[in-house]
Write a structure and sequence with these properties.
CATH topology of the largest domain: Ribosomal Protein L4, Chain: A
Structural class: alpha/beta
Shape: elongated
Low-confidence stretches: 147-151
Distance between the termini: 20 Å
Number of helices: 8
Order of helices and strands: EEHHHEHHEHEHEH
Strand content: 5-15%
Number of strands: 6
Length: 216
């Protein structure tokens, strides 16, 4: 498929051919759903922990005599029915992470890229860097794409910037922008990519994506 390469101000510079096998596929909603759930599950800490009646600190004596009171017999004050007692069936530390097939994950990334390209929320922008590392210089670079509202005091939409390399100066300039997320072409995250209202891909990163996700 053919796409336009634009400047940071949104002006069309030239055209670029994007591979249909990465940016022009039918949208597979199921595999996108599984990829996002997989990332969220892998990010869970699983550190929640409660004490059962055997782990609660306290005496093992009965709260009252077993016979003669007319009440139901009780074992000890650490029972879950007592305040300060153990928790019945409470959470214990566990690992929520699981592996997803590589082919399915690659298909999910290509489906999301195709979705963004087809609904017009993906823009290929000419390569740039921010030598000063300043936020205002980065906003000036993408003013016509995502940061236009920031200069006017409005809240910009959630934006994803896909880089070819780990450009530390660009990341430094944008690290205090909570609405801007950086992804490297070979380390995409389905959650960030899917929920990005605007996806900005550097021209070099677009070419690298076509080669990296090409069917082998």
């Amino acid at each position: 498929m053919e796409s336009k390469v634009v400047s940071g101000k949104g002006e069309t510079l030239r055209s670029i051919e994007l591979p249909d096998g990465v940016f022009g596929l039918p949208i597979n909603e199921d595999v996108i759903y599984y990829a996002i759930n997989n990332e969220l599950a892998n990010a869970r800490l699983g550190t929640a922990c409660t004490k059962d009646r055997g782990e609660v600190h306290g005496t093992n004596r009965r709260p009252y005599a077993q016979k003669g009171t007319g009440r139901a017999r009780q074992g000890d004050v650490k029972s879950p029915i007592y305040v300060g007692g153990g928790t019945a069936f409470g959470p214990k530390p566990r690992d929520y992470s699981y592996a997803m097939p590589k082919k399915a994950k690659r298909l999910a990334m290509k489906s999301i890229l195709s979705l963004k390209a087809q609904n017009g929320t993906l823009a290929v922008v000419e390569d740039f860097t921010v030598e000063s590392g300043k936020t205002k210089d980065l906003l000036a670079k993408i003013a016509g794409l995502a940061g236009a509202g920031a200069a006017k005091g409005a809240e910009p939409q959630r934006t994803v910037l896909v880089l070819k390399d780990d450009d530390e100066m660009v990341k430094r300039a944008g690290r205090n922008l909570h609405w801007l997320h950086f992804l490297k072409y070979d380390r995409l995250r389905a959650h960030d990519l899917f929920y990005g209202r605007k996806v900005i891909v550097l021209e070099s990163a677009a070419k690298a994506l076509g080669e990296f996700y090409a069917d082998k």
